[in-house]
Amino acid sequence: MPEHHLPEPIDLELILLGTGTSTGVPVLACDCAICRSEDPRDKRLRTSALIRVNGHTYVFDSGPDFRTQLIREQVNDLDAILFTHAHRDHIAGLDDVRAFNYVLNKTIHIYASQEVEQSIRNEFPYIFRDDGYFGRPRIDIHTLHNEPFDLDGITVFPILVKHHLLDVFGYRIGELGYITDASSIEEEEIEKLKGCKVLVINALRKSRHISHFSTEEAFALIAQINPEVAIITHMSHFIGKHEDLFHEFPPRVLPGYDGMRLQISGSKVKLLPPTWY
Ligand SMILES: [Zn+2]
Ligand SMILES: [Zn+2]
Ligand SMILES: [Zn+2]
Prior knowledge:
Layout: E1 12-18, E2 48-53, E3 56-60, H1 66-72, E4 80-82, H2 88-91, H3 98-103, E5 108-112, H4 114-123, E6 139-143, E7 149-151, E8 154-163, E9 166-173, E10 176-179, H5 187-191, E11 198-202, H6 215-225, E12 229-233, H7 242-248, E13 253-255, E14 261-265, E15 268-272
Parallel strand pairs: 3-4, 4-5, 5-6, 10-11, 11-12, 12-13
Antiparallel strand pairs: 1-2, 1-14, 2-3, 7-8, 8-9, 9-10, 14-15
The protein binds zinc ion (3 copies).
């Protein structure tokens, strides 16, 4: 990455809104030990995360659990959604931005690739119909390319990853890297993650999968990027119980859980207790 494009340190708060794969955990109708676990950290809504920077609130994706997640975390403001890709577990909750439209009289900014924008147009056609209907979400779409962009004065670096054959955008903001639904990443994109203090990255399960990293693949990438702390997300019930993962994972690699919060300020990374605790 060219020198003048290097991410600057930015103070931010991160909340994992959901850490589950597309089915969520527990999986409907499954009675495996993980799905029956009473540990709240084994209950995983669909993957999404929230960040607060300079008084602004942003989320990565708005999946089917979007509303439930924002209520749980008592989120009462939102400025933008940064989409990763258009699978339903990442976009299905978009309609719920209407509350912010009505209550706060705010238009929500959407950052999406042309491909994701097309899916949003297909899935939510009423948003774009010019028929005077008052009840549709008010959004302002910004087209995402694989180049840094300004978000209320901070620079966001998109990171192109592959989800089997599908293009997905991860993000680097200050010292945070956020990657979900990746199964491979090109070297030049990995470069953009170097120097990040906190890396959130997907691993579906221990065994290999065509469109998601396994834990082993994610650990190899984490070792290469070498963040201060890495957090695993987008987990399926096959991965195991949170408590066991916590002990099995390598040093400085944590299994994420819904409601996990941390703060990056100055040179420090601090884990905060979850709001539900
Ligand atoms: Zn997904
Ligand atoms: Zn299960
Ligand atoms: Zn996906």
